[in-house]
Amino acid sequence: GREPAHVVVSPDGQRVYVTNFGDNTVSVIDAATLANVATVKVGKGPHGARPSPDGQWVYVAQTGAGSMGIIDTTTNRLVASVPVGTKPVQVAPSVDGKFVYVSLAGDNAVAKVDVGSRSVVGRVAVGTGPIQLYASPDGTRVVVANQGTEEQPGRTVSLIDTASFTVTGSIETGSGPHGVVIDPTSRFAYVTNLYGDQLAVVDLTAGRVVADVGTGRLPNGVSFGSREPAQVPSKTIALQLPGAGDASEPSPPAEHGH
Q1: What is the pLDDT of residues 20-79, one digit of tens each?
Q2: Is residue 167 within 8 Å of residue 145, measured between CB atoms?
Q3: What is the mean pLDDT of the chain?
Q4: Are strands 4-9 and 15-20 parallel, antiparallel or unpaired?
Q5: Based on CB atoms within 10 Å of each CB, which residue in 6, 27, 72, 248 is the most buried?
């Protein structure tokens, strides 16, 4: 659809879900054949999405509607929209599947949604302009990237304790933290800093950045893969990359906060 924003894969690897920001739909794609098997009508401005741990639901941040959509993956239908706050951007299901955490860029907060009652049961203030967030695999915390604005970039990620649902601290990662993912050990978080053109590696146990990796301009999302990479031939490959002033390079949609 128009303006595809996020791509997520079902836990069993059989389905791919794409949020189409400009069409207010979610495309359901067969991962094996790459055929579009369904198009789900959702609320205004679908952006971030993630499946439940059991794959039964796909949760969608409906940015323009101020709600979180819930898609039944069996019927490929939107079965509920839960009001959460102003400009929800991304969702993060808890490891036990009981809750979903939603970043609210317009409220500088994170909402906690009870999956059973489909209602907001908690809300906590974080930094300015929270964008991506991620729940740790061990279930103890949620890490929130506080992007801020281009004029006044944020520089931190907020650490939320899931038991008390309170912010227990923050870590400075760079200019405009945007994407965040946590590795399976729950020790390291990887944060893309949109305006700093770099990836920060955060040791959550030590509470500090332990490495910085330079990237291209405006690094956005980030994912973690556990598989060992294939053997790469030991030869130099020249890549032609667009320069900073290359007019042919498209600008990311402003409404996505990128």
Answers
A1: 999 999 999 999 999 999 999 999 999 999 999 999 999 999 999 999 999 999 999 999
A2: no
A3: 92
A4: antiparallel
A5: 6
